[in-house]
Design goal:
Radius of gyration: 22 Å
Bound molecules: zinc ion
Order of helices and strands: HHHHHHHHHHHHHHH
Structural class: mainly alpha
Number of domains: 2
Distance between the termini: 25 Å
Number of helices: 15
């Protein structure tokens, strides 16, 4: 059995982490105010008001300040555990920097548009939004009684941050090159036919196409030993929840995204369809790992559900190298790779033999280390 960290609110760890995350977000937000052209996402900018972000930053700073102060006071009291106090001190350094920059009263910098950007606004809203939504869902309809800060959460949280930073950088590359490189395809091949279709039909085809590519890539990761060393990182999660899906090797993310997105762009789907697909991919990937007890009846034979993907992560013999699909579970029934008789939920998760180390950087290095055999 894994030793679960029983951390309770009020002991200083949770408050320290919340204070640190909120103060870091506030500092990033302040930077985004100064350099909106380079740090915010043009399309996303239209959907929120500057006033809303100012309010958000105001409350984030108050909560972070309060928690950090509490943390330092408790940290000083409990001399034995220093990290609690340092979380508070680090938070206050970030809060002070934000305040020095002007915090929520900063004038928005000049906007010219058309510049390459890293979507810090997207990163902040996504982090706050997805943690709020998924932690709430998991608390209301949990499948397993499991603390938010369960075994391995630090590793997953670090993966989560790195992945989002990486996606920000990839968007930067995309806006710079892909639209120029693939601008011409919208007029040739099946592009005109696709674009004449209604939105939902296009959406169905883009997801089907992406999942077919993704299915075989995923199967490759399982069946080619060299590739498995990268993908094993994703399977090293012993606890499943919304954050566990973030646990992936960085090269796997880049390779799979390119493998799916480049042909999707080449086929010439409408931009709104590609955007919708990117949102669905992100949400479904998180949801499929979530610790929720939803039952989908016959629908689970058509779409991938948390139960279906939890089986993919099971260390149970009957489930090894099964349930590869990410969106449409019927692909696994079609290609004969679905777990049979998966009425219940898996009991244990993880890699058989448990040879993957915990920790973000150890996992990034793992595939390049000599296999111990
Ligand atoms: Zn897998
Ligand atoms: Zn997974």
């Amino acid at each position: 059995m894994l030793k679960e960290q029983k951390i309770k609110f009020g002991e200083g760890i949770i408050s320290g982490i919340i204070a640190l995350v909120l103060s870091a977000m506030s500092l990033l937000g302040a930077l985004a105010f100064y350099f909106p052209d380079y740090l915010t996402t043009p399309d996303l900018r239209k959907t929120y008001s500057v006033e809303f972000i100012r309010q958000l930053m105001f409350y984030a700073l108050i909560i972070a300040g309060g928690l950090a102060t509490f943390n330092i006071a408790r940290g000083l009291h409990y001399h034995g555990i220093k990290s609690r106090k340092y979380l508070g001190i680090l938070s206050w350094i970030l809060i002070s920097s934000t305040l020095l920059l002007g915090a929520n009263t900063i004038e928005v910098g000049s906007l010219e548009g058309g510049k390459p950007y890293i979507g810090l606004d997207w990163f902040i809203l996504d982090l706050l939004g997805s943690s709020l939504i998924f932690i709430t869902i998991e608390k209301i309809w949990p499948f397993r009684d499991q603390p938010v800060f369960r075994f391995g959460w630090q590793t997953d949280f670090n993966h989560f941050l790195l992945n989002h930073l990486l996606i920000g950088l990839m968007l930067l590359v995309t806006t710079q090159f892909i639209h120029h490189a693939f601008g011409w395809v919208s007029t040739i091949g099946i592009a005109p036919l696709l674009q004449s279709m209604p939105f939902l039909l296009q959406l169905f085809f883009i997801i089907l196409f992406a999942d077919l590519v993704q299915y075989w890539a995923h199967r490759g990761y399982h069946e080619v030993p060299f590739l498995w060393r990268f993908h094993a990182v994703h399977h090293s999660a012993k606890r499943m929840d919304w954050m566990a899906g973030s646990r992936q090797h960085i090269l796997e993310i880049i390779a799979t995204r390119c493998l799916v997105l480049v042909p999707v762009m080449m086929l010439g789907f409408s931009k709104s369809v590609v955007d919708a697909y990117i949102i669905i991919v992100g949400l479904q990937a998180v949801f499929n790992h979530a610790n929720v007890q939803f039952k989908f009846g016959w629908l689970q034979y058509i779409i991938v559900t948390p139960q279906f993907h939890h089986w993919h992560h099971s260390s149970d013999k009957a489930a090894i190298d099964k349930n590869y699909a990410a969106h449409f579970s019927f692909l696994d029934y079609l290609f004969g790779s679905a777990v049979k008789g998966q009425k219940e939920w898996p009991k244990e998760y993880g890699v058989v033999g448990d040879y993957i180390p915990e920790g973000l950087w150890k996992q990034q290095l793992f595939p390049f280390k000599k296999a111990k055999k």
